[in-house]
């Protein structure tokens, strides 16, 4: 009897040891897989950033095309292929125009920045004059030690890659439109089950709907904010009004920190150019009021409950994607986080992640189930099914 008990105990210990060993191997494999994925994200970031932006532009335009294709003018109906060609042409024209505007403003800023270098250094040092002359002189020497020319050359090099990135995005968008007719068939064949394919397509539709609303609202609010900053600097007859308006428009796509950085940059540019500090303070107050009203009042009103993301989760996402992909990663952080939250909310094992990423602990709800156990068609499914039938 004693030998039997010893054998049972030994077997239990061996089983426990095996389970712990298997769990350890699983964790190690997960860490290795994460490291490999992270390495690939960093190494292929030029292509992956272009692909991510192309997918977002494609989803935005695809919804518009589906809406247009459902309209009828008498007996005529706009063909899907014609709407797709027009969409690609408009996307290409818009991206090339925006790239040209950005490059021209970067060149304008770079060519005139050196003329303001000494004034900027003295202006920054004067901000610390209330702490004493020694502190002001120390700050001035520290600022002068910064190699501004090196940063300017780096900025010029980054501006040169914008055009090649835009061309790559246009190519990706064009090929996505060529393949869009077969997306539904490919998904159904990939899943091997029509019901499962509908469920996956509904999740994709939910992601597209929420990301599209976020981007449309952000584009509208950022455009109004950039235009207001442009008018503000123009009223005071300051240089770089167009560049600051464009910078504000771009930075407002970065949640939380983008508007703060834009306001500080606008204030610094004004402080360098105006002789009276009171004018710079007034511009700072007005720019801050514009950002606060549009970003904290109008933006949430238009956004509604579209995102429902945790503020802390957004900061973590910004930090991660900023470290991996730099500034473009910070622009894409929120769409990626929305996609992750919605996908995790429909995977039982990953639902805790979705709860942590959501604002109130209420992520995307599971699709309602009918008494026979089949998923009831949701709004996302109806949108996606209608889009497929329209094609």
How would you characterize the overall build of this protein?
This protein is mainly α and 391 residues long. It has three domains: 1-43; 47-192, no CATH class; 195-391. 80% of the residues lie in helices and 1% in strands. Strand 1 (72-73) and strand 2 form a beta hairpin. It is globular, with a radius of gyration of 27 Å.
Please describe the topology of this protein:
Layout: H1 2-43, H2 45-69, E1 72-73, E2 76-77, H3 80-113, H4 117-126, H5 133-144, H6 148-179, H7 183-191, H8 194-235, H9 241-251, H10 257-273, H11 277-303, H12 311-325, H13 327-345, H14 351-357, H15 379-390
Helix pairs in contact: 2-3, 2-6, 3-6, 4-5, 4-10, 7-8, 8-9, 8-11, 8-13, 8-15, 9-10, 10-11, 12-13, 13-14
Quick synopsis:
The chain is mainly α.
Descriptive keywords:
about 400 residues; globular; 3 domains; mainly alpha; about 0% strand
């Amino acid at each position: 009897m004693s030998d039997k008990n010893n054998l049972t105990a030994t077997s239990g210990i061996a089983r426990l040891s095996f389970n712990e060993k298997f769990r350890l191997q699983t964790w190690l494999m997960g860490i290795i897989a994460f490291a490999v994925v992270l390495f690939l994200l960093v190494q292929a970031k030029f292509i992956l950033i272009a692909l991510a932006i192309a997918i977002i532009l494609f989803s935005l335009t695809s919804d518009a095309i589906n809406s247009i294709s459902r309209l009828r003018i008498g007996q005529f109906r706009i063909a899907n292929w014609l709407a797709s060609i027009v969409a690609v042409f408009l996307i290409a024209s818009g991206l090339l125009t925006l790239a040209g505007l950005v490059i021209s403003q970067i060149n304008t800023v770079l060519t005139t920045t050196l003329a303001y270098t000494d004034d900027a250094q003295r202006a920054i040092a004067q901000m610390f004059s209330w702490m004493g002359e020694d502190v002001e002189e120390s700050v001035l020497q520290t600022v002068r030690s910064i190699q501004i020319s090196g940063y300017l050359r780096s900025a010029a090099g980054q501006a040169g890659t914008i055009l090649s990135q835009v061309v790559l995005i246009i190519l990706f968008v064009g090929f996505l439109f060529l393949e869009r007719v077969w997306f539904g068939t490919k998904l159904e064949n990939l899943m091997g089950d029509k019901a499962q394919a509908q469920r996956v397509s509904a999740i994709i539709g939910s992601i597209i709907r929420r990301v599209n609303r976020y981007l449309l609202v952000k584009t509208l609010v950022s455009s109004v904010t950039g235009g207001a900053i442009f008018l503000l600097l123009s009223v005071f007859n300051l240089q770089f009004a167009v560049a600051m308006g464009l910078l504000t428009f771009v930075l407002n796509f970065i949640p939380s920190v983008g508007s703060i950085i834009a306001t500080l940059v606008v204030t610094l540019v004004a402080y360098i150019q105006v002789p009276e500090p009171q004018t710079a303070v007034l511009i700072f107050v007005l720019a801050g009021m514009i950002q606060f009203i549009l970003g904290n009042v109008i933006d949430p009103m238009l956004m509604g409950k579209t995102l429902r993301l945790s503020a802390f989760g957004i900061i973590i996402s910004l930090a991660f994607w900023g470290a991996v992909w730099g500034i473009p990663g910070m622009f894409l952080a929120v769409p990626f986080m929305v996609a992750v939250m919605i996908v995790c909310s429909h995977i039982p094992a990953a639902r805790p992640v979705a709860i942590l990423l959501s604002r109130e602990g209420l992520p995307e709800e599971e699709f309602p189930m009918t008494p026979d156990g089949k998923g009831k068609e949701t709004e996302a499914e109806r949108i996606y099914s209608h889009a497929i039938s329209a094609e």
